[in-house]
Amino acid sequence: MKNIAILGSTGSIGRNTLEVIRNFPGKLRAVALSANCNAGVLYAQIKEFNPGLVCLKEESAALKLEPRLKSTTLFFKGQRGLEEMVQDRRIDKVVLAITGSAALTVLLKAIESGKEVALANKEALVMAGNIIMRKASRSKAKIIPIDSEQSAIWQCLKNENGKKVRKIYLTASGGPFRGKSRQELKKISVKEALRHPKWRMGPKISVDSADLMNKGLEVLEAMHLFGVEAEKIKVLIHPQSIIHSMVEFEDGVILAQLSITDMRIPIQYALTYPERLDNGLAGVDFCEIGRLDFEEPDLRKFPCLGLAYRAAKESGTLPAVLNAANEICVEAFLSGVIKFVAIPGIIEKIMDSHKVILQPELDEILRADSWARGEACRAVNN
User: What is residue 232's three-state secondary structure?
Assistant: First the structure.
């Protein structure tokens, strides 16, 4: 029996993780749940799964939820409470499904306590990948990716020599705006941006997928997870989303991981590894698919991907600046303050004005993150 903590249990990844746990009650148990502010959904999950550890980050919501909990439930509040909860000895594996940069300090606490982490957050590695991977190596904490693309790479590299990798192919569906003209992109609404053709996801990652920033963040994430240079990571538009990623080795052999588009598949493997268990989901029907298509991403229409490659090349504090500016811009777009096409321009302006610190310490990364957020807020308001 594996005791699982789900950080971000009320979001899309969190709910899918609980669905996997429902399917394997004899192997998986949810012992800790956390949410940001959705106390109603969290309480329903608590009643069903009866975790011994619960955290709600928003203080006002936490005050309303606490009186409804059993006396045997250990209740945590706020960011510090979440960092404390994740270190509890009852937890075997942490599913980190918190979106954005807020996951960074929690991830570091989980790693420092030697926990195995099933990682569904890419922003933390984008910001501080070198620091995270060094700490994981020292504490012998295993990081297993949940994102379908990173999970695919991880599976292709299993029992392989990572030094023999010639190229990694990160596939992308192309999002809801593949094939649209630059003129059409100027009229994009929030509703359209959230309508992903293949995946059902939260609003932030949906917007990132629509402008290909998500794929850029995955390039940075893969660099750290698998120890490869950005030059060896190529993004391919693959509209069928059947091949989730591929790895090419020095002898010209390419290994690919294929499956239907269902996040429960990589989540389940991250939780049950090294076992593969029957999940009852449909397999790939190649005759029905008929063909698999690939094309180059259009960086003129989707410059966010190019900005991510630039951040990867210059490294240092620039990836943290890219990520912070993007989070502010996406929030502004979702609120109707800026247009979809304004996002990359604001991010690039802030990257241009940042003085990069190479090989930064954590406090320097956090200062760069804070600075970029301030600059992005001013740019958005202007």
Answer: helix
200 has a pLDDT exceeding 80: no
Sheet holding 74-77, edge to edge: 74-77, 53-56, 28-35, 2-7, 93-96, 116-119, 143-145
DSSP 70: -
Q: Indicate the fold that domain 2-145 takes in CATH.
A: Rossmann fold (3.40.50)
Q: Which residues pair with 117 in a beta bridge?
A: 94, 143
What angle do helix axes 123-139 and 318-334 make, rounded to 10 degrees?
Answer: 140
Helix, strand, coil percent content, the chain, rounded in steps of 5: 50, 15, 35
Q: Looking at residue 268, what is its pLDDT?
A: 97
- Note the pTM of the prediction, 2 decimals: 0.94
DSSP strands (E only) in 193-260: 233-237, 243-249, 254-258
174, 183, 173, 171: which is closest to 246 by C-alpha?
A: 171
Stretch 154-161: mean pLDDT, rounded? 94
Token pair for 206: 């949906």
CA 360 to chain centre: 22
343 vs 63, more confident: 343
Q: Is the pLDDT of residue 205 over 80?
A: yes
State the average pLDDT over residues 112-136. Answer: 96
CATH entry 1.20.810.10 includes domain 315-382: no
Give pLDDT, residue 224.
97
Burial of 288 (0-12, 13-18, 19+ CB in 10 A): exposed
Domain boundaries, the chain: 2-145, 148-313, 315-382
**Torsion, Cα of 87, 147, 219, 210 (10° steps):** -120
Q: Which residue has the tokens 């008929």?
A: 290
